[in-house]
Amino acid sequence: MKAAVFHGSGVGLRIEEVPRPVAGPREVLVKVAACGVCHTDLHYLEHGVPTFKKPPVILGHEASGVVEEIGAEASTVKVGQRVLIPAVLTCGYCPACRAGRENICANMTMLGNHIDGAYAEYVAVPAKDVLPLPASVPLAEASIIADALSTPFHAVKNRARVQPGDTVVVFGCGGVGINAVQLAALAGGYVIAVDINERKLAWAKEFGAAVTINAAKVDRVSKEVKKLTGGGADVALEVIGNPKTIEEAFECVRVGGRLCVVGYTHEAVSLVAGKIMFKELEIVGSLGCRPLDYVPLIRLVEQSKIDLSRQVTHRFPLQELGKAFEVMKEGVSLRSIVIP
Ligand code: APR
Q1: Tens digits of per-residue pLDDT, 139-196?
Q2: Is the CB of 264 inside a 6 Å radius of any atom of ligand 1?
Q3: No. of H helices and E strands in the chain?
Q4: Contact 123/37 with Cβ under 8 angstroms?
Q5: CB within 8 A of 198, min separation 6: which ones?
Q6: Residue 290 near ligand 1, beta carbon < 6 Å
Q7: Most buried residue among 38, 56, 226, 231 by CB atoms closer than 10 A?
Q8: Residue of 240, 264, 265, 336 best suited for mutating to test ligand 1, as the one with most atoms within 8 Å of CB
Q9: Taking the model in full, what pTM does it have?
Q10: Ligand 1 atom at shortest distance from the alpha carbon of 38
Q11: Residue with CA closest to ligand 1 atom 35
């Protein structure tokens, strides 16, 4: 089969012919319908972030497809079933899993990181992890539920805990951030979207932002947010992964408010500890989502409360995966999917 194989940071991806995986006894072999292209892959390709599996490794962690073969003990899933493949697979028995917090599983396995991923024609995954997709949900577009939607769903609902009427500032309106905007608005929040790209801000408006701020055009975003909210937002979400924007998001939060860090950075961030104490601020991180979050999320898509097709702005065949990273870097895409 054809797959996009990562050979290390700076070396990049090569589309190669590799052996088709074989489903183990408790696994299913999924024929990949589409795989979303995430900024995390760019961290591996260009920013020196290592994959857990030593390259070569097939990247891609945001996939949907159709079950092609089932293992001898994988009776829960049927051949021909349309499925979503979660980006991260969990062990089910570590303390975090036992506490219902599988998204921080001690033994988590991420596709296209710990194990071969879905920039490929086929991928083998445990049968217990795949989620059935209703017939009304478009199969290829559904791939982005696996990360671009599930990550902000957990962030907005479980970690930032957005309530109706909350003022919510979202830093970063890319593939993940646009859904933080969409889901925070759906939760009843008054959403202030922040980006440096006018196109992204226009999309943010379409997806439910009440107000937008171009961070490149104002002195301090926090000053603008304080003006708009009368003293600061109830909740700030950072969905970029930049120490400076994490610091600015922190400054946007009102007394008793909450900062939720969704973007990834390996760099240190400088926050005034006295403000955390004196304003009783909460700072929470958010990583992926729990398996149980997928069911209500898929239901929201099925009910058309969340629009998938408008946010899939680009489609590429696997051979042109490189172009998806180009449009991401140019800032002209919201989410690209590759169709193997
Ligand atoms: N201020 C405001 N917005 C910014 C800034 C800044 N200084 N720098 C970048 N942005 C915006 C970009 O214009 C873009 O719209 O942040 C957005 C990032 O979006 P994407 O590149 O599409 O990245 P995405 O896939 O959404 O991932 C964002 O979440 O899951 C993590 O690892 C992922 O850290 C990454 C983050």
Answers
A1: 999 999 999 999 999 999 999 999 999 999 999 999 899 999 999 999 999 999 999 9
A2: yes
A3: 11, 18
A4: no
A5: 214
A6: no
A7: 38
A8: 240
A9: 0.95
A10: 25
A11: 263
